[in-house]
């Protein structure tokens, strides 16, 4: 039956939320939230992680995917189509960036095995016996230690680490200053990294078979202090680019950066592979170990020169605020 124009005009306009009580406030709030979300989503793209709050928000980029999905849903419920469009486009861009980290590479890792463990000892408070237990049980070949104090070196020695891994290039120091490399195979100290705020030693690992591997123990300064973000960025930039000659290289440690931070992205873009992302575990969090804050992935093992990851795992170490990372790398001949 045909309705008159008067009858149609008298019907409620369900899709005009703004005319309902409180609808205008809800629309305004949704718009503000969407604008904030767009700024958050843009941080990894426009590379504005230059001060501590931007650094923190960039670290939380994977969580922005969830926030974007919620905003899209709210926009659909309120029928705010422009908000839906902007939130959907930004969320799609984030998904395009983040999802590959949970998709394993299809390239098989081939060559001689090199088992790498990285542990942040939290000012030397980590359980030395547990570290040695993991080294033995996993037959670790090279161990990267961050926040390595002289007291921690002594505890590791008493726990039997240096009987298991007799070769070392260590630069212990107070609090978070010290870093070290301990190896099953002979080491020759290198200077691949210029002096940085915290020690970042490097060495050539004399592999028993195949090509030798350059190894860097990584620990740039924590970026969340009142005036440390600039130093953090400088410490990351000091890390070496992949060798032009194709020399195998591994960098392992607490990068204090996620795969969304500009300097780490730039480094990987020059030819490094992230072990976790390569096997589909790129979103596995490593800090904080007790989840007192939204957990993020800031500990990494990077490789270049024909070195690829075969597996990857995170390990709880009592006394540390980080989860240790373990990977079996394959060094192509």
Please sum up the structure shown.
By secondary structure, this protein is of the alpha+beta class. 36% of the residues lie in helices and 21% in strands.
Descriptive account of the structure:
This protein has two domains: 5-101, no CATH class; 105-331, Endonuclease/exonuclease/phosphatase (Deoxyribonuclease I, Chain A, 4-Layer Sandwich). Strands 3-4-2-1-12-11 form a six-stranded mixed β-sheet. A six-stranded mixed β-sheet has the order 5-6-7-8-10-9. The protein contains eleven helices and twelve strands. The model is unreliable at 5-14 (pLDDT under 50). The radius of gyration is 25 Å and the shape is elongated. Strand 7 (213-218), helix 9 and strand 8 form a beta-alpha-beta unit. With 333 residues, it is of the alpha+beta class. The chain starts with a helix and ends with a strand. Residues 117-322 form the Endonuclease/exonuclease/phosphatase domain.
Main pleated-sheet profile: 6 strands, mixed
Compute the number of helices: 11
Q: What name goes with the CATH superfamily of the largest domain?
A: Endonuclease/exonuclease/phosphatase
- DSSP helix fraction: 25-40%
Beta content comes to 15-25%
CATH class of the largest domain reads Alpha Beta
Backbone structural class: alpha+beta
Number of strands: 12
SSE string, helices as H and strands as E: HHHHHEHEHHEEEEEHEHEHEEE
CATH hierarchy: architecture of the largest domain:
4-Layer Sandwich
Number of domains: 2
Strand order of the largest sheet: 3-4-2-1-12-11
Average of per-residue pLDDT values: 93
CATH topology of the largest domain: Deoxyribonuclease I, Chain A
Distance between the termini: 81 Å
> Ranges with pLDDT <50 over ≥5 residues?
5-14
Protein name: Endonuclease/exonuclease/phosphatase family protein
InterPro entries: Endo/exonu/phosph_ase_sf, Endo/exonuclease/phosphatase
Keywords: Endonuclease, Exonuclease, Hydrolase, Membrane, Nuclease, Transmembrane, Transmembrane helix
Pfam families: Exo_endo_phos
């Amino acid at each position: 039956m045909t309705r008159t124009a008067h009858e149609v005009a008298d019907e409620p306009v369900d899709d005009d939320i703004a005319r309902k009580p409180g609808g205008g406030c809800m629309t305004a709030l949704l718009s503000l939230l969407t604008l904030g979300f767009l700024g958050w989503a843009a941080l990894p793209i426009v590379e504005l992680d230059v001060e501590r709050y931007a650094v923190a928000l960039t670290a939380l980029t994977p969580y922005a995917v969830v926030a974007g999905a919620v905003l899209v849903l709210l926009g659909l419920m309120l029928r705010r189509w422009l908000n839906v469009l902007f939130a959907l486009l930004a969320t799609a861009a984030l998904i395009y960036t983040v999802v590959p980290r949970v998709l394993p590479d299809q390239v098989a890792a081939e060559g001689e095995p090199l088992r790498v463990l990285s542990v942040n000892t939290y000012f030397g408070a980590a359980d030395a016996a547990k570290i040695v237990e993991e080294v033995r049980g996993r037959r670790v070949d090279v161990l990267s230690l961050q926040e390595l104090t002289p007291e921690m070196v002594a505890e590791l020695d008493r726990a039997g680490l240096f009987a298991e891994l007799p070769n070392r290039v260590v630069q212990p120091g107070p609090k978070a200053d010290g870093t070290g490399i301990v190896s099953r195979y002979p080491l020759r100290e290198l200077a691949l990294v210029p002096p940085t705020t915290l020690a970042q030693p490097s060495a050539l690992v004399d592999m028993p078979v195949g090509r030798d591997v350059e190894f860097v123990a990584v620990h740039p300064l924590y970026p969340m202090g009142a005036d440390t973000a600039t130093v953090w960025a400088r410490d990351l930039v000091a890390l070496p680019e992949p060798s032009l000659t194709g020399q195998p290289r591994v960098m392992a440690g607490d990068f204090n950066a996620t795969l969304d931070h500009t300097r780490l992205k730039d480094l990987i873009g020059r030819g490094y592979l992230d072990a976790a992302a390569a096997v589909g575990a790129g979103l596995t969090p490593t800090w904080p170990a007790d989840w007192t804050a939204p957990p993020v992935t800031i500990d990494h093992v990077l490789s270049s020169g024909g070195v690829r990851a075969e597996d990857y795992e995170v390990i709880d170490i009592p006394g540390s605020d980080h989860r240790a990372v373990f990977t079996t790398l394959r060094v192509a001949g």
